[in-house]
Amino acid sequence: MDLNIDSHVPKYAQIADIFRQRIARQIWSRGMRLPANEALAEEFGVSRVTIRQAVDLLARDGILEAQQGRGTFITGSVTQDRWLKVETSVTELAEVYRDTSPQIININESLTEAPLQPGDGKAAERYVFMRRVHSRDGQPYCVILIYLDEKIFKRAPAKFRKQTVIQVITEMPKLKIATARQTLTIGTADIEVAKLLKVPLNSPVAEVRRVFTTADHGVIYLAEVTYRGDFIRIDMDLRP
User: Fold this and answer.
1) CA-to-CA distance for 211 and 224, rounded, in angstroms?
2) Angle between helices 37-44 and 11-24 (to 10 degrees)
3) Which residue has better confidence, 199 or 36?
4) Cβ(172)–Cβ(151) under 8 Å?
C-alpha cells in the first residue's frame, strides 16, 4: 500500500491511522494477531522500525499489545464518530447546528461579491463574507466560507457573529427562503484546510456548496463548506 510521501504526517502515523481504520471497520477484529512486522513492512514499503513505531503508537492507546515471542494482538476497539449528518432540508440543517452547539471561530469578515454560478440566482448588491471554523468538544469538524446578503446581515449583526448563520436566518421574521439546494462532492484536504481541521494533508473531505434564494430569485446566502471526512455521514431514502 502506498503512503502519502508529500504529507507532513510521519509514515508511522499514517500507518497507525490505517490500522485504526481496519480495526474500526472490523477488517481486523479484537483478539486477532496482526501479520508479522516483516509482512507489514513489505506491504507498506517501509522498515520494520517504522512498523514498530506505528504499533507503539496504538499500544499507548490500548488498542494493540505486542507480546514477546507471540506477536502483536488487537486488545482494544476503535469507533468511528460519524455524528455529523448531511441533512436534506433547511429546518433539519438548522437543528443539526443547534443540537451540536458548535464553537465558532471567526477567522475574518469583509464586504465582497459572491462567487455565484450560472443558475444560482440574482446577486445582491453586496455580501458580508465570513470565514469560520466550527468545532465540537474542541475538535474542528468543518471550515466554512459564507456569503450573506449585507442587508440581511445588518438586521442582526451580533447574532450572525456569534451563532450559526442558518440558525439565525431560519428564525428571522418576514424572511422566507423560497429555494435551498446543496451539492456535495468528495475531495481531499489541501495544506490550509488540513491545518485548520487538524488532519493530514490530502485526507478525505466532503465539500458542500449551499445556495438559498428568495421568491424573486435573489441569492441571500451562499456557503462553501469543507467537512472532515471521518466525521460525516449521508443518509438517503431511495425511491422503490
Assistant:
1) 9
2) 110
3) 36
4) no
- From the list 223, 219, 220, 222, the residue with the least C-alpha distance to 122 is 219
pTM of the predicted model over 0.70: no
Q: What is the DSSP string of 153-205?
A: HTTSHHHHHHS-HHHHHHT-TT----EEEEEEEEEE--HHHHHHHT--TT-EE
Distance CA 3, CA 21 (A): 15
d(CA 66, CA 40): 14
pLDDT in tens, 108-147: 788 899 999 999 999 999 999 999 888 877 778 889 999 9
Element spanning 134, H or E: strand 127-136
Gyration radius (Cα) of the chain, Å: 22
- The DSSP element (H or E) to which 26 belongs, if any, is none
- Nearest 5°: the CA angle 78, 79, 81 is 140
How far is residue 111's CA from residue 153's CA, in Å, rounded to a whole number? 11
Q: What is the mean pLDDT of residues 6-23?
A: 79
Rounded CA-CA distance 238/225 in Å is 25
Res. 4 pLDDT band, cuts 50 70 90: low
